Amino acid sequence: MERHKSLISLSSEHHHGLVTAQKLKYGYKPSSSTDTEMTVDDKKEMLLKFSDEYIHKHFRLEEEILVPYLPDNEIIKRMLDEHVKMYELLYVIEVSDPDEALLNQYGEKLEAHIRFEERELFPLVEKSLTEEQLNEIEQKLKGENK
Ligand SMILES: [Fe+2]
Ligand SMILES: [Fe+2]
Predict the structure, then answer these.
(1) Which residues fall within 8 angstroms of residue 79, CB to CB, at 6 or more apart?
(2) Burial level of 81, CB count in 10 A (0-12/13-18/19+)?
């Protein structure tokens, strides 16, 4: 489905997120042409880097910029709840010596969260907001991405 232009920057980060989730689950080294298996340490390092570069800011933008425009409904509650659970799991991964299963679990959660947002949250944004509100969101996101 065609995304409204206001949501394209978030959607393209979702694409990066899905690639990261695949690597956490299946373990191929980033940008490797030879499909070298990633070790648990490689996965942890990749995830923490991705989180510093994208996840924290992405969650914050969804929470601070999208949420104020939306009704307080089940979709929003689920989004916020999943953000909290992923923050918690990421923290555990950061401070511990995570095993394969824990990293896989994060990959599963990340992928499910992104698919939920693309299938339910973003369509809700597109259908319940006016063009003017969507443009406002676009400007706010642009201001944050400067
Ligand atoms: Fe999210
Ligand atoms: Fe998202």
Answers:
(1) 62, 113, 116, 117, 121
(2) exposed
Whole-number Å distance, alpha carbon 123 to ligand 2 midpoint, is 13
Tell me the one-letter amino acid at 16: H
Q: What spacing in Å lies between the alpha carbon of 128 and ligand 2's midpoint?
A: 18
Q: What is the pTM of this model?
A: 0.93
Instruction: Write down the H helix ranges in the chain.
Output: 8-26, 40-50, 56-61, 74-95, 100-116, 122-128, 131-144
Distance 34 CA to ligand 1 centre (A): 32
15 forms bridges with which residues in the sheet? none
Closest CA to 47 of 118, 110, 116, 112: 110
Return per-residue pLDDT of the chain as tens, 146 residues: 689 999 999 999 999 999 999 999 988 766 666 667 889 999 999 999 999 999 999 999 999 999 999 999 999 999 999 999 999 999 999 999 999 999 999 999 999 999 999 999 999 999 999 999 999 999 999 999 77
